[in-house]
Amino acid sequence: MLKNTSSKIMQKFTTDGHRLTAQRRIILEIITAHAHEHMTINDIYKYALENNDNISLITVYRIVNFLTKNNILRRVQIDSNHYCYELIEHSNLMSYPHFICQKCGKVFDLGDEDTIKKLSACEQKIAATYHFKIKYSEILYYGLCKNCLDTEE
What CATH number was assigned to the domain covering residues 1-93? Predict the structure, then answer.
């Protein structure tokens, strides 16, 4: 499945007229291999160095920004100065809620499909009621994850 996702993204890349350089290919492979993680630029850079020691942090920044602008990645703001990135599933462009642990920094998705459907219905109702085309929304819940709660007690 991940190889299929990687192939689809690379095909979209070339179909849209973008060059698929070796460095872009490495970043795309990292992102699809870790599709269910919320990686920071530094995380992506660390994985990139494992595959190619000839890549700079600024190159990773540029590629990630390019992928974000082209709707391949979604940027999630963790706090006022930090972001993580996740692969956009093109079957579902709606952003879903994230939990962010304020102690360990872990970011994870709300995985309850029923709640996601209710949030989507709510968003659609708001758009219809206020005659507003919502292009993007983001819901972030800040608190403590189970592991950090357990260590606090």
Answer: 1.10.10.10
Exposed / middle / buried, residue 121 (Cβ in 10 Å: 0-12, 13-18, 19+): exposed
Q: Residues 58, 30, 79, CA angle at the centre, nearest 5°?
A: 60
Entry pTM: 0.70
Residue ranges of the chain with per-residue pLDDT less than 50: 1, 91
* pLDDT given at position 44: 95
CA 69/CA 118 separation, integer angstroms: 28
When the candidates are 3.90.420.10, 3.40.109.40, 3.10.310.10, 3.30.1490.190, the CATH number that belongs to 94-153 is: 3.30.1490.190
User: How is residue 132 annotated by DSSP?
Assistant: -
Query: What is the predicted pLDDT for the residue at 91?
Result: 45
What pLDDT shows up at residue 1?
44
Segments making up each domain of the chain, as ranges: 1-93, 94-153
As a whole number of angstroms, the distance between CA 28 and CA 67 comes to 9
